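This protein record is not my work; I was only asked to verify it. Where you disagree with what is written, explain briefly why. This is what I was given:
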Amino acid sequence: MKIAIVIVTYNSAEVLEGCLESLSRGSQGTRLSHVVVADNASADNSCAMATSARELPVQVVQMGRNAGYAAAVNAGVDSLPIEDLDAVLVLNPDCRLHPGSLGYLAKAMDLGERRGITVPRLVNPDQSLQPSLRRDPAIHRQLAESVIGGTRAGRIGSLGELITDPRHYDQPGPAVWATGAAMLISTSVIKEIGSWDESFFLYSEETEYALRARDHGWSLWYEPQAVFEHIGGESDTNPALYALLMVNRVRLFYRRRGRIAGVIHHGLIIAGESVRALTGRRTARAALKAVLRPSKLPWPPR
């Protein structure tokens, strides 16, 4: 398969070099035609680092501002000759590809007629499993997560949205959506369903895209032979990022399920974050303040 890679950067110099260095061996088994670094106005030397990678077909798209993850993905994809490509890998700069991993993702996509998105096994820097597959967002799952937490809910059958059972990650198979750190997307999907939703500045944009692809009859496929190391972000520890994550979960649920279900889901998130805020969690206090602001929500439409 002929593949391009789009990497979104924002002050990513610390991790970008390792990502770029992994691409040559990681893309074995494919024809890597383009590597686009879409930069959200980094203040460090991310752009200079990208252009210095002489062994790769790198081009830099400068956004001129911090436009958000989805907007940078769209700009990167728009810079590509989509008609000449089979798929595009959307990649975080804090990912490292194990040798041949992109080839495994491409093969998995090629074997299924309506496999529009394939995702790898994500591992932490110590090579331990990083759970990345998700089930449908649902009221009963949010209730469980609000009461006992997402990690505990994930251990009880299919109760949690995040799949945490390590045995599930040993075999290939379909999933509803997955962490957006690394997603190989067929150009047929890109042509059919269009751009990423830029109203999600950060978080939930990959959820919305995967669910929209499913609405059009495309499946998301997990391939464990493809292994990507993912350093991971700060959403669990940074109050501002965690608040944005929770606001966008609320927004997406309203958008897809409507007002009644959205209000219930919203209330459960408020309840869960309220309890956690009482225990002194700074992230929960920030999230509670954010989800209580009507201006941050899409219902009623502004």
